[in-house]
Amino acid sequence: MSRSFGIGVVGATGAVGREFLSVMEERNFPVGELRLWASERSRGKQIEFNGESHTVQVLADDTDFSGLDFVLISASGSISRAVAPRVAAAGVVAIDDSSAFRYDDDVPLVVPEVNAADLQEHKGIVAIPNCSTTPIVQVLAPLHEHSPVRRVIADTYQSVSGAGGSAMGELAEQSAAMSNGAELEPDVFPHPIASNLIPSIDDPRDDGYSKEEWKVSAETRKIMHIPELAVSATCVRVPVFRAHSAAVHAEFSDPIDAELARSLLEDVPGVEIVDDLAAEVYPMPMTAEGNDTTWVGRLRQDMSHPNGLVFWVVSDNLRKGAATNSIQIAESMIEQGLV
Questions:
Q1: What distance lies between CA 321 and its chain's CA centroid?
Q2: In the sheet that 31-38 helps form, which strands lie side by side, from edge to edge?
Q3: Is 244 part of the annotated catalytic residue set?
Q4: Among residues 156, 216, 252, 320, which one has the fewest Cβ atoms lying within 10 Å of its Cβ?
């Protein structure tokens, strides 16, 4: 990249917002001007980036986005709905981390390793998927190229950081309270999360699924361009601070055994196979924490279906599931000459 780019970050003091900055530093993204916005309670905070201190401004109705190239947004859906169109109207690309635009037909939903070409259809707003969807489609896509996928059942095990910094604090506080024999008081979650599992994420739907489970289904179909794909998910919150995991059962048009799956995945960018059950070697949340790799293990042919394959996948939800994917989208748009 021969020139620098103006970058804005909405939600700069949040968990993902800080990861935006960290990932850009690590990847040597050519940042020229940097503008940071957050809520009133973060007014005037100083955040260091590339050795320089930057002052956090309060996001307002008259905030000026002109002159930038990209605005990275990690905020609530309502804030994204209000801000992203204004960013696009200023001639700037909004890359949004919320679910606000993911299901809009005219907004690309992108994992660059899977569907970077969709960025060519952008109209100023690009959405990134749910942090559980991203690693699933990263693994499914190269397998689908070999044999079309027909059905996917995914059970996700999602860390508390997916619910924000306050959720991480709640797990830490409850874990300490347990060691002291104190009563656990839930606040962020409906039940104690320490030493517990909560099989419900996001709002319940009338069909018995949660909204999070519906997201995994709808986003997988859109990203992979398979609107008829049968997808069912169960999403569970687990007492892990960081990194999401998923057990995936996929049915293909033709058989794909574990050996073939490994050969199809071994050279896929961003994917690493860690798979030796006999030696107790497989991906875990601690494997993925703090890095951008999507880790795959427990590859095996599904004993319940001749064309079925089972795998376990883990990735850092704050990085590849959010911040890194956003930065990679910006990089891809630059490489494709779209900015």
A1: 2
A2: 46-49, 52-58, 31-38, 5-10, 70-73, 93-96, 125-127
A3: yes
A4: 252
Enumerate residues 6+ apart whose C-beta is below 8 A from 267.
none
CA distance 209 to 232: 9
Token code pair at residue 237 = 């919150």
The confidence score (pLDDT) of residue 1 equals 56
Q: Each residue of 204-224: pLDDT tens digit? A: 999 999 999 999 999 999 999
Joined together, the tokens standing for residue 284 give 């875990």
Domains of the chain: 5-129+322-335 (3.40.50.720), 133-159+197-317 (3.30.360.10)
The C-alpha atoms of residue 55 and residue 123 are separated, in whole angstroms, by 30
Catalytic residue among 144, 235, 244, 305: 244
pLDDT tens digits, 46-63: 999 999 999 999 999 999
Count of C-beta atoms within a 10 Å radius of residue 221: 17
Q: Position 153: which residue type?
A: I
Q: Which of 131, 144, 235, 249 is catalytic?
A: 131
* DSSP designation for 319: I
Sheet holding 271-273, edge to edge: 230-237, 149-158, 244-252, 308-315, 294-301, 271-273
